[in-house]
Design goal:
homodimer; 250 residues; alpha+beta; four-stranded antiparallel β-sheet; three-stranded antiparallel β-sheet; globular; DNA-binding
Chain lengths: 250, 250
DNA sequence: CGTGTTATTGACCAACATCAAACTTAGTGG
DNA sequence: CCACTAAGTTTGATGTTGGTCAATAACACG
């Protein structure tokens, strides 16, 4: 349990701002949300499938994912969450979780009581619409992932994932110098894209060979954005960003 | 454009009832929604990606899907929608559609003006929660599809899809005699599960050989529910049904 | 330094895709 | 009612992508 800092709140504003206009009234309400901050180690479960939640999570720092387990212990990561994201807002309305939530890197996460969120939504229709919209964009990203995993080959899949994450991070102002910091092991990339860890390695080499990216550990410099975009069959429409890509320099 | 019948409304009630309690007050409001009914031929697009909608759709009869197109003209079906479903409720809050909507069989669809839906949600918090919940269950199904396509083999995928559809149809009372009527061609099954049409054929044969189902055209008799369930690694939790499976005879 | 994790490599193989043709079915019009 | 057609299904042969296994190399960290 840790203290809340100003920048924690601003992450949430920044994230919401990417998809809708957050007015002062809403900003004010958000700044009064009670946050219980917890730090998780890399790999730690934040919640597991079947959990009944009384709080929703807000990612403050690090990288968080939602995942599902299938037969034979295989894992599928169904979403990645950046600072400012509310990765299990749906627990407000769904009795128990149909997925796990885990920290992919050391992460600070704030728990917000459902009552607080619900109260805020009841009091303020604009706020309700705002949070609703985040859930709907979430769903839109799921749809794209279904298409990505179902109908794109391995190079396209990985390229697409990089594009998506790059755009989302840029929209949050988390990218400097075109370097995408993605603290995912290749095994985790594999779980996110539905391919094997070994093959992820080969695909990454290919993306480097093609000149799209240069990797140093988890830091990937995007050398050829339009090439990567083309390789990943990527179009940002499904992210429903308020600003055009040009506004974030892409 | 066709007349609205009583049973059209009851489909919507029935569908909502599967995930939440619909009280008389809500039932009353729903029965006053203005519906503009349109019939679509098999294969017809109801709306296409990029459309800006002023209405949301309600499936009255038939089978409807949401789909995305990727490079090379490949198609991925991202969801199937049964009578009573509201397949593009998200258009209430997202400016334009990130996917297409098409009739997989001859279908009657009702268009409901956004204003009417929004008005209803604004006036009645319980109604808002009800519709919100349908969107969240929708998203939960997306997550399961990601896991299905990403981490299950072709037999599991198809079996899982059959299980899901069977359960959803049973919950709506649309199944008699354990026969699942699924008006999908094998090419469409392929687009829904991310495999090739030819391979779907072989998988179907395998499911028949294993004694799980018996097919006559689009009518599939489920001969061994627990076998199919096991083969598809299926668990209904993610459907967030109000009633346990035992309540619908499974 | 050891030690554990992650990345990389190569050999091999299985699952699934692709292609092309034949067959079945359902619908249509004479 | 039947021939005709188009759509969908089935089959076999063949090719490719990507999975699996096992070993090695590169890091990261105490």
């Amino acid at each position: 349990m840790m203290r809340t800092e100003h920048s924690d709140r601003s992450r949430l504003f920044a994230s919401l701002q990417t998809i809708a206009e957050v007015r002062d009234a809403q900003r004010e309400m958000l700044s009064q949300l009670p946050l219980r901050v917890v730090t998780f180690h890399q790999g730690a479960d934040i919640l597991v499938e079947g959990d009944e939640a009384t709080d929703s999570c807000l990612v403050l720092s690090g990288l968080v994912c939602r995942y599902k387990l299938v037969a034979d212990g295989k894992r599928q990561i169904v979403s990645l969450h950046l600072p400012g994201d509310l990765p299990d807002l749906q627990s407000l309305y769904l009795a128990y979780s149909d997925h796990g939530l885990a920290a992919l890197s050391p992460s600070r996460v704030a728990f917000i009581p459902h009552e607080a969120l619900r109260g805020m939504m009841d009091r303020d229709a604009r706020m309700a619409a705002l949070l609703l919209k985040t859930m709907l964009v979430d769903a839109s990203i799921f749809r794209e992932w279904i298409a990505n995993i179902g109908r794109r080959d391995s190079v396209q899949r990985i390229a697409h994932l990089f594009c998506e994450t790059f755009v989302r991070m840029r929209a949050l102002g988390l990218v400097s110098d075109n370097v995408l910091s993605l603290p995912l092991t290749q095994a985790e990339l594999a779980d996110a894209t539905g391919i094997s860890a070994v093959h992820v390695n080969r695909v990454m080499q290919q993306l480097r060979r093609l000149g799209f990216i240069t990797s140093r550990g988890n830091h990937h410099r995007i050398n050829d954005w339009s090439g990567l975009k083309r390789a990943g069959d990527f179009s940002a429409a499904y992210l429903h960003l308020r600003q055009p890509l040009s506004a974030i320099g892409l």
